[in-house]
Amino acid sequence: MPEKGVMICTALNPDETIAQFNDGKYLVIYDETKKYLAVQVRNPVLAKKNKRFRFVKECLNLNANVIYVPRGSLSFSASRAIKKAGAKAYVVTPGGKFPDSETAEPSFGEVFRSSLHAFAERFRRKH
Q1: Closest by alpha carbon to 58, among 91, 15, 87?
Q2: Which among 11, 27, 37, 109 would be 20 to 30 A from 61, CA to CA?
Q3: What is the mean pLDDT of residues 71-77?
Q4: CA 35, CA 118: separation in Å to the nearest integer?
């Protein structure tokens, strides 16, 4: 049976720079093995609540096994969903060129900070 290739999911702006999950125009899946965009769709979470988690779930539903998470987009629930699916997450800087952006392993501090941002966004939306 052939080995599954590396399928990277992230959010992109029209100029192919990495965007936050909650405001990127596109959700893309990039086949790292074959070096092409396998999927490019309008960001399906722009009008939804819990955008970070829903974006990650969309990536996983599209069979991504690596998720490039822009700084500020890796909430606790998103991190948990990635781990549960057996996928990998790498933190990237928003505005970086995809797929050549530098990546780093996510830290607890990154997850905590992202979760605080998500909470603050929901709070502002309600008030």
Answers
A1: 87
A2: 109
A3: 85
A4: 32
43 or 73: which leads in pLDDT: 43
Q: At what angle do helices 51-61 and 76-85 cross, to 10 degrees?
A: 20
CB 32 within 8 A of CB 6: yes
Helix (H/G/I), strand (E/B), else coil: 60: helix
| Alpha-carbon torsion, ordered 22, 24, 29, 35, to 10 deg | -140
Q: What are the angstrom distances between the C-alpha of 42 and each of 31, 82, 88?
A: 18, 21, 23
Contact 93, 70 (CB under 8 A): yes
Domain residue ranges of the chain, discontinuous segments joined by +? 7-126
pLDDT band at 84 (very low <50, low <70, confident <90, very high): very high
Quote the DSSP letter at residue 86. T
In 3-state terms, what secondary structure has residue 127?
coil
Cis peptide before 99 (omega within 30 of 0): yes
Cα 74 from Cα 23, distance rounded (Å)? 14
Residue type at position 66: V
